[in-house]
Amino acid sequence: MKKIIFSFLVASLLVITSCKDDVLPKPASQLRLDYPLAEYASFSSDCPFTFDINEDAKIKADNNCGFSIQYPKMKATIYLTYKPVNNDITKLLRDAQKLTFEHVVKADDITELPFLNRDKKVFGMFYQVNGNAATNAQFYVTDSTKHFVTGSVYFYAKPNFDSIMPATSYVKDDMQHLMESLQWK
Q: How many Å apart are CA 79 and CA 112, to the nearest integer?
């Protein structure tokens, strides 16, 4: 009889203590990447051009008027390259276009956006590369007689377009602003 009463008490105790609220799984969440609104400042050097740069970016001069514009929080860098035009504008244009279209293997599509600023004599093309390519934006600008500048952005992360899309969009907008603000001295 003691065993039955003891078993009943143990069973009752287990039932009473095990009654809790139902456990619900946490709802799925998404990574939220918010970046500050870009503020631009004019950048000038000894090179034959000036442009606007995001104040959050860090710029480093390379050889022959080339620049690396780094975005440490996004693990991205915009590379600018300057070349003087020496009666070789066709070759420079072909090289810039070839560099862009090398990404066609991984890209879903490449959108070309022509750029023309007659007053400042800045002409060029902005390329938006969609998909899992190594770069998502490139451009070139020229005055077609003396100066030629190319720019491309690279992320130091596996190119998974969906994951880094907010960062790519932010840097792409900066890059487009840089191209549109570029002026020859």
A: 19
C-alpha radius of gyration, the chain, whole number: 28
pTM above 0.85, yes or no: no
Q: Quote the DSSP letter at residue 144.
A: S
3-state DSSP call for residue 14?
Answer: helix
Structure tokens at 34: 């918010």
Backbone angles phi, psi at 100, to 5 degrees: -65, -50
What average pLDDT does range 90-109 have in this prediction? 81
| Angstrom distance (rounded) from CA 120 to CA 98 | 26
What is the DSSP code (8-state) at residue 23? P
Neighbours of 134 (CB within 10 A): 14
Residue with tokens 């066709």: 90
Neighbours of 115 (CB within 10 A): 16
Residues 92 and 81: their CA atoms lie apart, in Å, by 12
Q: At 16, list the tokens.
A: 């009473």
